[in-house]
Protein 1
Amino acid sequence: MWIFRNQKTIAVITVVLIVLSVFGATKIKVNNLLLDDLSNRVKIKQDFNFFDKEYSGVRPLELQIKITATDKNIWDYSIIKQLNSLDEFIKKEYTAGFLYSPSQLIKSVYKAIDDNAKNVLPAEEDFNDIVKELKANKKNKDIKRIISTDLKSARISAKIQDKGSMLVKEHNEHLKKYLSENINPKEIEVTVTGAAHLVDLNNDYMVTNMMQGFGSSIFVIALLTYFLHRSWRMVFVFIIPNVIPLLIMAGVMGFAGIELKSSTSLVFSIAFGVATDDTIHFISRLKIEMGYGKSLMYAFKRTYFETGKPILLTTFILMGGFISLMISDFQSTFYFGFLICITIIIAVIADIFLLPVLLLLSLAGRKRTSNASYYGFIVANPLKFPKRNK
């Protein structure tokens, strides 16, 4: 009875939570670190962070170099000059602690030959002498690591700090701009590649794919609801209480700084499936009770007694299962259990408090079997529910 007398309050609270959740959801970042799933308490994560901070970094940065000019190869002086400028840009932009490339190889040999030489690209005459020696040792494993046998392709290998895919994407955009302005595309083609880059692409693909799957699941459930009830109003009544928990979960992620990646994006589809379960039971039971010819209010009363208790019990059982995931040292597993528990709690609250209000609004214009003036007034005026005299 409290729910039906405070429908406006419930509606206002719901709107406020939606607004706050949408604002929090805008703060969600799509990011990925190499060992982000491991807790900082794990020894291997501590060692990983130590080498990442104190040494040259642990995240690999790989660039493929392809010589597009037919009359030139990797040992052409103009090509090496452009690659040398690219090396300097990478060191500055990515703060690379280690870098291995054809131009770095030339400078290392030049410095080894001349003790007084600085770590700079030699003049063309000295460069040609060094290239002759390198060509004579083309089977050297260090040369074969970065230069192909046909001298038409090479690689730049660097190590940078693992600052996350979001920051690396910004650096990659700056790299594209630099390449378009300083590298001749008729001579050199540069492509970002490597294991870390593929992991970032895979994470972005999975996040996008999960969101598309989530949207598809909402569409399918909305379609099935329409065919079951033949009413678009019932579709909205069914969808709204189940989408709100997901919005609140997204808001919690935004405010708590939980980043969106392949592991956390999976939560939305699973949580939506879990949340809809209670709504299906509630609406189905209400429909059965009304089919017996009972009044709407009596049907709600029987639905609360017959379905409300099992819904609460199921909620506690599900929470007991997912809470066990929160003891894991893997952050993705911890967040998975944490976020689903939040969604389950909010979903059952929405089904108990918000769903009856939406059902009253949806069914307000229909005929009722009860002739009681009090309940008739409730149905006709769902937002003006008076306090009954004792």
Note: The beta strands are 59-67, 98-100, 153-160, 188-193.
Protein 2
Amino acid sequence: MIRVDLSATDVAIEAGQTAQLDVSLTNKQETDDNIAIEIEGLDVEWYAVPVPSVHVAPGETRSLRVLFKVGRSPDVAAGTYPFVVRARGMESGETGIHQAALTIKPFSALQLDLDPKRATSTLFRRASIFELRITNLGNHTETLDLSASDSDDACAYEFENDRIVVKPGGTEAVGLAVEPRSRPLVGSTCLYQFTATARSASDAYVSASAHGQLERRAILSTVMASLLLVAAIAAAGWWIFRPRPVAIRSFTAEPQEVVAGDPVTLSWDIENPGEGTKIDPGNIPVRSSVGTVTVKPEIPTLYKLVARGGGREVSREIAVAVRPRPPLPSARIREFTASAKRIHQGDVVTLTWRVDGATALVLNPIGELNPKMDRSRQVMPEVTTTYVLSAQGQNGEVVTKSVDIEVVPPNVSIAEIRGFRAVPDKIEAGGKAQLRWTVANAAAVEIDNGIGDQLPAQGQFDVTPAVTTVYTLRASDSKGNAVSKQVTVTVVPPAPQSDEPITP
């Protein structure tokens, strides 16, 4: 048995360089043997074994060297190539193998050619077409971005494809259109130098360039321009001094219907206007053939454009309808209330309001308020106070509304009996009357004669007294201060019935 050991199972090599692999051979047999090694799976031109065999005694380990070298050529693609190192005993026939891999590192090399090297841009052929040929001399596929530029940024460049993929050893052709950004009417020929570049999309240091020239020719030569200038001057002189009649091409108003005081733009287009051209009413002078003016009519107005020139006078009219301006809205206080209108000293009252269309809001004696944000305010008056809410509208008018807060001492009841009556207040014996009451600011309400002591602030109760009875309503506030009111239900005996017959 022969054991094979390698100094490395993955041998990395750069194209054009060499690499070394040490192979250790151990003779596990009981007899001497001459052991030779072979490399399987690789091109024979990629490796060399200086000493292909060695004599190895039983149990002994000997080493052999394998040298690798690959050419720097697109034909040798970058990648990993597996191979087998096989050891064979020349006397015993025993073998031993070990697997490994050869990794060829990628390298980049580009070649760029431009055809033609020089082209011409004229009035009728503004863009010149160049053919850019890119050759990949490296050993792996390249993705390239194409660009072109000149030092003066005088030309525009457009590629048929601005990104291409070129395989190892392959060549791709791409069209490039070059056009000058400007072209003078008169001038001499100008020559632009430009550079076309192909650059790797994955490695900015990998690139290639080619230089080209674009000749730009002016539209007119100096001689031709001089002749045309003389002809133009002659034509202009004739045009300037020829008789020119005045004419109104257009006269418009925008808009043609407005609210009183709103702006209206009058626009005109006049051919050959002269002195005395104007717009009425207002005697507005017109000094240009095309222009605008802004007017603000207060009433319906008929505007008239009068144009004079060349011994003629022409006019055109346009009507502008004017609506009266609606009055500015005034403020409106829809609601101004207090949570209580009669309080003890030290109690807090919440003032609440609802106002429409106010631009300014003042609560006296508190101060200014925010008409858009404020909706209520808590106050704690020490004395009876009248709070006045003032709201100013867009028209400047001020509307007011007030609420009175009565402040009483702590020993005075703020409970208020607003109504207490009997309906009816006189009944016959056995008849029924209804007590009705309304109380405000009361913490407790009671009526004697067995009616109740936890009554609502507003209610009614049916009574059937046998004799004339006085009912007392007592209302207490939160401090126990009470007020009372009495009503009397008078009970009368029933009217006697008559036994006399009724005469028809």
Note: The helical segments are 222-241.
Protein 3
Amino acid sequence: MSEIAAAQHIKPKRPHAPDASHAASVDPLLAAIREYWNAHIHDLAVAKHPVGTKGFFDDLDEYRFDKLRYLPQVVDFNGFRGQRLLEIGCGAGIDLIRFAKGGARVTGVDLAPQSIQLAQKNFALRGLRAELHVMNGEALEFDDDSFDVVYAHGVLQYTAHADMMAKEMHRVLKPGGQAIAMVYNRISWLHALSLVMKVELEHEDAPVLKKYSIGEFKKLLSPFFTSRIVPERFPVASRLHQGWKALAYNRIFVPAFNLIPRPLVSPLGWHLMAYCRK
């Protein structure tokens, strides 16, 4: 049995915690979310290599960290060596791989079985260890105080009951541990631009997509002892769109926006990054 497969058999179980399949069977919205993300691999449209190959995962990594150039500057992927880190909504494991390379002892969970299958392939291709489980992030199957770090980048806005997920993030975090999360900013340049240009955002058709103000996000994170929210992600050229709107965005809007002094527009960042302590 491979190390990756073996990890599937050491999943800690919290008594009476429903597994992802059961949760989805009794909650139609969770079922719809699971099926949507099974069918919509994030950033699949930009991949040039066959799904599940090393080239495919390299394509996803390159695109993600080109689009999210800010992320390695605000999340120290090498800063958690030896710590037990949980990613909720790990998808194909793109961010989780970086934490693992940095020496963290990583666990990834996702509601969608397809995501976990891809994450398993990603880790196996790179010879890295991880515990990877199909699991409902609103009812985590881990004991209290299990992790040093909980990471949920771009997940809370897509789940059925974000308040339940935030409480679970807090519950499984050790006292003094750190939670890092991101949601979309409702009062942002990208939300406004999408309305003006009548261009749908990525995954606008997802069963749940909730955008937050800074105040609303702080309220969601109220279980934590402290929380600090920093707006991030400002315009970079898009590879996903074609035609005159894409040309206007890439050639005119992006350069013009980035000439504006950042302090004037910093509250309007599309991503709200949260850094929390228990």
Note: The mean pLDDT is 90.
Protein 4
Amino acid sequence: MVRGGKSGAYRPPDLQPPDSADSRAPIQELQPPGTIENQDRSGSGAQYWLWLALALTVILSLAVIFLLPRTVTEPTERDQAVPPSVPIPATAPKSVNNKAARTNAEQTLQSLLQLQAALELANAGTWAEPEWSRSFDEADRGDRLFSQRRFREAGHHYATALQLLEQLRDSRDQRLSAALDAGEHALEDNDADTAISQFELALLIEPAHEIARRALTSARVREEVLRQMNTGKDASEDGDLEAAEAAFRKAAELDDSYEPAQRHLKQVTAELAVQRFNTALNRALGALDAGRLSDAEAALDEASALQPDSQVVGNARKRLILVRQQAALAGLRGKASASTRKEDWKSASAYYRKALAIDANTAFARNGLALAQERILLHQQLDHYLEDPDRLFSAEPRNNAARLLSSAGSIPDNEPLLSRKIARLSQYLSEAQTPVQVTLRSDGETEVALYHVARLGRFHTRELELLPGTYTLSGSRPGYRDVRVVFTLKPGRSPPSPEIRCREQI
């Protein structure tokens, strides 16, 4: 009988051949459960050795069945001794049908070897002690009795060994469940060593058991998990929440199924979040009071990330927006004031518009923009005449300029540029309104008219006072071609003496 899980195998003694020809009766050849041809030839090395062990088991079993009877002799007195675990009759009657007993023993042995091979593949030798060894002991006794041709007693021991293996096979699920339960209870009690041994036993019974595999992983790190938990609790009691969080997080990472680590981590993380929130909020408010708006915004962002729905953070943000608006308005007001001092009304107008975009109700911006627009228009109107003073020589532009000067009113002392422009226009207007004496000359025969002024008739010389500007004289005489003379009077310049007479006869 092959001893799986033990060293070596039982070998019957070298005895004389049997007297009866029955010992050569053919028996059914044993086959293992499945053949090598039916397996995946690309299987792992472990499967190869398992099948090799099974093949050796079958070969040895056949050797026992075919060769053992040939070595059987009549038992000696010493060989009659049978272990007390097997009840043997005091005397075996000679009428016992040895052939039937032998057949029964061989068939039982065949069943025994088949079950043993199956349990060998299931690693029974690693998880079924001491029953596994007891089954081999019974089988060894059966082998010795079979070699002594005591087939009935041998069959009894084979049957006992088979029964033990059947009990092992049938108890596999129960053993697995018991190992898992014992491991779970040990893990709950933080008895890591016991838990490890029980889960390892469960994996010997069922190597692919996922629950046992995960539980074994937890058991192997339980001591380190408990150490981290103690470190976290001590740090939490000392008020060092960051150290506590780090320890509890490490424990949770080591074993994500350990509920106390998850619970403590969640609790201390929440406490730390509150602490960090309060710290960030206080820093934000302090920065606001100090006018450090960028620092205040960064601190509020940090606080908002910790408590997104915090009303306190919302109020602080509104205050930050208001302070920023006020700061921006103050900056724009200063720039606009600098532009007005330089009488750069276009730039001032732009700054006032930006201020109104921030707050449409800003009084300084509304009033400043209105003044800036007035000044821009006034400068444009003044420049219209100052750039071409000759426009004032015409009555309508001259009247418009007079009205413009009248509407300008008094000029503030802080606007010297405007004052100079008004003074210049006033001077140009005064000059344009001051008549210039001019002497006209003719031949006494030509009828003379001054367009838009008067008909002058015939004369040799004529003195007139005319406002500065451009004038046109026209002359006519019967039998002669009409003539025209254009002259311009400008303030501060010697007036011309225009002469007009008709010279060309028709």
Note: Residues 259-290 form the longest helix (32 residues).
